[in-house]
Hints:
This protein is mainly alpha-helical and 267 residues long. It is built from seven helices and four strands; from the N terminus they run αααββββαααα.
Amino acid sequence: MVINTNLQAQINSDNLATTQARLAKSLGRLSSGSKLTAPSDDAGGLAVSTRLDAQVKRTDAANNNVSSAVSFTQTQDGYLQSISKALDRMSELSMLAQDATKTDADRADYNAEFTQLSAYITTAGNKDFNGVSLFSANQLAVTIDSEGNTFTMNGIDLGVGAYTNATSSDISTTTAATTALANIKAAINQLSGDRARIGAYQTRLNYTSEQLTVSKENLTAATSQIEDVDVANESTEFAKQNVLMQSGTAMLAQANQLPQTVLKLLQ
């Protein structure tokens, strides 16, 4: 029996330090909800989860961009619906102005309304959405994924000839009314095509938004598998290490008492 070196106490002290480290790690995981409380917990998993987290955020941002583009097209179509009603009324006025039983004074009254509707359409062409022109020939590149890929929406331009010919017409005479009617019919055809194109863009954008939402969910699930702690399993581990900590402390106390038996030999 030796007293200078208490080997049992040293072994128990090492075991207790290991248990304490495991208990601290388990406590950290439970309190943070993450399995990766330090890079050393899973270096490879940390690298993967970091990239996945960044991709989730980019996907979310891309979905926001798509939502903004949907709002843009909805605003466009809102104006075009009103313009469609204005063109319908203008075509009606053009027909009324061709009535042989109407006088020039009657046609002047029709033309006053016709002119105001034309001015409304021209004014609508200058509207914008958050500083971006709603009706111009400029194309818009809409982000569709987390890698920054885009698809192009062609502009809806109210300055093309089909529209300007209609808005620059008048119905002050029967001859002018006949020409105006032809121009307005061409404008209505142009508008129907423009609205159909907007509808096609909206369909694609809605599908893209759904796909981005699913992608975000899957990426988040993949990240969760790497980062998130299993509370049930970790609680069991915590209870285990807590018991080992208490028993190790008790055993270290017992090991520290062993050299006291030497005193009995000296009595």
